[in-house]
Design brief:
Blueprint: H1 5-11, E1 15-19, E2 22-25, H2 26-39, E3 48-51, H3 57-69, E4 72-75, H4 82-92, E5 96-98, E6 120-123, E7 133-136, H5 138-152, E8 160-162, H6 169-182, E9 186-188, H7 194-204, E10 208-210, H8 213-221, H9 224-227, E11 235-238, H10 245-255, E12 258-265, E13 269-273, H11 280-285, E14 289-290, E15 295-299, E16 305-306, E17 309-315, H12 327-333, E18 340-341, E19 344-348, E20 354-359, E21 363-366, E22 369-372, H13 373-381, E23 386-396, E24 400-409, H14 417-426, E25 437-440, H15 454-465
Parallel strand pairs: 1-9, 3-4, 3-5, 4-6, 8-9, 8-10, 10-11, 11-12, 24-25
Antiparallel strand pairs: 1-2, 6-7, 12-13, 13-14, 15-16, 15-17, 17-18, 17-19, 19-20, 21-22, 23-24
Helix pairs in contact: 1-2, 2-3, 5-6
Length: 470
C-alpha cells in the first residue's frame, strides 16, 4: 500500500511550513500531530472530529493527528459562521470540536488510516445555502498532485505558497498534500492579506503560488505587488471561480509566471486542466482538456448524453466517494450511468479544449430569455474600472427577473450604468443580456471557502434595489 501522508511526514526533513510568525519543521509538525492523536485516544476508530483552526501549521497538524488516531476529521473553514459550523458538526455526528491539547504519547500505528480509507469530511463551499458534506481520501488528492507536477512542469526544489482555506478541496491539495508528498516547504497565511503575501513571496523565493482568482487580482491591484520582487514565481495555479483572461495575462507579463487552472470541484476533483505548454490563448480563455486519468461526458438537463455543449460529468480516480450519508444529494450528484455531475455548462471545441459557458443554477430568466450570469460576468469584468463582479437576478413584476451587476471598483475608479452598457455594446454583448441595475459595493460577500457567495449577493441586491427604478 502506498505510504500515507503521516508516513511521508515522518520521512521528510527541513522546513515544512512558513507563516508570518515563523517556521515549522517536519519533525515539529509530526510531534504536534502525535500530541493531537494522543488527545483523541479515547475515541473509537471512525469517529468524527471537527477541525476549525486558522490556516497555519496547526490545521495541518490536526489533519495528521486525526489520521494517526484513526478518526475522521471534519474540516470546517476558519471563517465559517456559527450556523455553518454547527450544521457540519451535527450533520456528521462529530463527537468533538478539535482544539490543540497538551497531551503527549504514541498511539498504536495499526489504528492509523490508510490512503484509501475515509480520511476527512469537508463541505461544499456553501455559496447558496448550507453546505453538503463531501467524503475524502488521501489517495485522490495524491493523484491530483501528480497531475499538477506534470501539467506545471514542477521540479524537485519548488517552494509553495497556498493562500486557500485549508479544509476545502483546493486547499487540501495545495497546502496539505503538495508539500507533504514533495517534502518541500509551503508558505501559508493564517489570515490573507496582500502586503504579507507579496513580502513572503520575495522573502521565501516562492516558485509555485496557489490562489483563487480574487486573490491574484487583489495582488495585482495593490501597491505591494510593485514594492516586492515576484520574479521567483514560475507557476500560479488558480481557479475556484471565473478567471479573468486580461488580468491573467497581466499577471504573467508582470511576474513571468505561467497561469494554470484545474476545472473541477471538491466532489469531482479535476475533470480538465491547462498545461504549461498549451498555447497561451487556450491556457487563459479555456479550462484546458480532459485530464488523462479521467473520463468526461456531457449531458442535457434531462440527463441524456449530448455532444458539443452540456452539463459535464466525470468518472475516474480523482472523484470523491459521494456525499456523507445523504441519499437525496447523491441521487442528484450522479448521472444514471454513474458519472459525477457538476453544476456548470461547458462547450468543447474541435481541439478538445473545454470552455465554461454558464452554470445550471446561474441562469437569469428575463421575460423567458435564459441569460448566463457567467457570460455577462466575463464581459463586465473586462471594464477597466471593475475589480470584481457578480451577476445576479433581481425580481421584476413585468419580466420576472432582471440582470443586476454587483461590482467592486479599482482604487479611484467610478462607474455608471450607462458607462457599463456602452462598454458591453462595444464588446458585442446582446442588449438582452445587459445589466439593468448596477450596485457598487466596497467588498463582495464570500463563502467560508473563499468563493463568491451568490446567495448572499442576490439577497443584498434585492434588498438594496427593492422599489428602485434605476
Amino acid at each position: 500500500m502506498p505510504a500515507s501522508l503521516s508516513d511521508l511526514v515522518r520521512r521528510n526533513s527541513g522546513t515544512a511550513y512558513v507563516t508570518p510568525s515563523g517556521r515549522t519543521t517536519w519533525s515539529d509538525l509530526s510531534a504536534m500531530a502525535d500530541d493531537i492523536a494522543w488527545g483523541l485516544r479515547d475515541l473509537d476508530p471512525g469517529d468524527r472530529v471537527g477541525i476549525q483552526l486558522q490556516d497555519d501549521e496547526a490545521v495541518h497538524a490536526a489533519f495528521l493527528g486525526t489520521e494517526r488516531a484513526g478518526v475522521v476529521g471534519v474540516g470546517i473553514g476558519s471563517r465559517a459562521s456559527d450556523a455553518e459550523r454547527d450544521h457540519l458538526l451535527a450533520r456528521t455526528g462529530a463527537r468533538r470540536l478539535l482544539t490543540l491539547g497538551s497531551g503527549s504519547g504514541q498511539l498504536d500505528p495499526a489504528r492509523a488510516l490508510g490512503v484509501e480509507d475515509l480520511w476527512l469530511l469537508n463541505s461544499t463551499s456553501g455559496t447558496t445555502g448550507m453546505p453538503k458534506v463531501v467524503t475524502q481520501t488521501q489517495a485522490r488528492w495524491m493523484r491530483f498532485f501528480e497531475h499538477a507536477v506534470e501539467f506545471g512542469d514542477l521540479g524537485l526544489d519548488e517552494t509553495f505558497m497556498s493562500v486557500i482555506p485549508a479544509p476545502f478541496g483546493f486547499g487540501l491539495w495545495t497546502a496539505h498534500v503538495a508539500p507533504i508528498v514533495s517534502g518541500r516547504p509551503c508558505v501559508v497565511l493564517p489570515r490573507f492579506d496582500v502586503p504579507t503575501m507579496a513580502r513572503l513571496i520575495e522573502q521565501e523565493q516562492v516558485t509555485v503560488l496557489m490562489c483563487v482568482s480574487t486573490q491574484f487580482r487583489m495582488l495585482l491591484n495593490h501597491p505591494a505587488s510593485g514594492e516586492h520582487d515576484l520574479s521567483s514565481l514560475k507557476v500560479m495555479f488558480t481557479g475556484g471561480e471565473m478567471i479573468p483572461p486580461d488580468r491573467a495575462r497581466e499577471f504573467e507579463d508582470r511576474t513571468g509566471a505561467v497561469v494554470l487552472s484545474f476545472f473541477g470541484s471538491n466532489e469531482t476533483g479535476a475533470l480538465t486542466a491547462t498545461r504549461h505548454d498549451d498555447p497561451r490563448d487556450k491556457r487563459l480563455t479555456t479550462v484546458g482538456r480532459v485530464v488523462p486519468s479521467m473520463q468526461m461526458r456531457l449531458y442535457s438537463p434531462e440527463g441524456e448524453e449530448v455532444e458539443g455543449t452540456g452539463i459535464p460529468g466525470g468518472l475516474g480516480p480523482l472523484t470523491c466517494n459521494g456525499y456523507w450519508d445523504d441519499d437525496a444529494a447523491n441521487a442528484q450528484l450522479y448521472a444514471p450511468d454513474g458519472f459525477m455531475l457538476m453544476g456548470d455548462l461547458v462547450s468543447v471545441d474541435d481541439d478538445g479544449y473545454v470552455s465554461v459557458v454558464g452554470r445550471t443554477s446561474d441562469i437569469i430568466i428575463r421575460g423567458g430569455k435564459n441569460i448566463s450570469a457567467v457570460v455577462v460576468e466575463n464581459h463586465v469584468d473586462s471594464h477597466p474600472a471593475v475589480d470584481a463582479v457578480g451577476i445576479v437576478p433581481v425580481p421584476d413584476e413585468v419580466f420576472g427577473e432582471k440582470v443586476c451587476a454587483v461590482v467592486t471598483l479599482l482604487p479611484g475608479a467610478t462607474l455608471t450604468l450607462e458607462e457599463l452598457t456602452t462598454h458591453l455594446e462595444e464588446r458585442g454583448l446582446g442588449k438582452e443580456s445587459w445589466p439593468e441595475h448596477l450596485l457598487v459595493l466596497d467588498e463582495l460577500p464570500r463563502s467560508s471557502g473563499g468563493k463568491l457567495a451568490k446567495g448572499t449577493l442576490t439577497q443584498l441586491a434585492a434588498d438594496h434595489l427593492s422599489g428602485s427604478h434605476t
